[in-house]
Write a structure and sequence with these properties.
The chain is built from no helices and twelve strands. The chain has 122 residues and is mainly β.
Length: 122
């Protein structure tokens, strides 16, 4: 079965950096679009970044220029490199496998990891 396992969360000071990892199994990783989402307390889950099988990326406006989403197909792992962190980045971060809906011409997540907490605070 499909498994997505995140790691790398924790407490970091404002302005600091953190790298999240998501190890995937049960899928042909290199052929899949992968994503990172986050959910802060009292807010809806939101897309942070997405990377295609060919390496094309897109980012939420709130993280553009601060976060990157590299992938290592040899390790079946996608990362979220987070720099210049702000208190408003505090959330549970989730890895996802993304599927394309041709009817709506949009992507949606069909598998999720368990989530990892990121807290940005001094």
């Amino acid at each position: 079965q499909v498994q997505l396992v995140e790691s790398g969360g924790g407490l970091v000071q404002p302005g600091g950096s953190l790298r999240l990892s998501c190890a995937a199994s049960g899928i042909i990783f290199s052929s899949n679009v992968m994503g990172w989402y986050r959910q802060a307390p009292g807010k809806e889950r939101e897309l942070v970044a997405r990377i295609s099988s060919g390496g094309y990326t897109n980012y939420a406006d709130s993280v553009q220029g601060r976060f990157t989403i590299p992938r290592d197909n040899a390790k079946n792992t996608v990362y979220l490199q987070m720099n210049s962190l702000k208190p408003e980045d505090t959330a549970v971060y989730y890895c996802s496998r993304e599927m394309y809906n041709g009817g709506s011409r949009s992507y949606y997540a069909d598998y999720w990891g368990q989530g990892t907490q990121v807290t940005v605070s001094s």
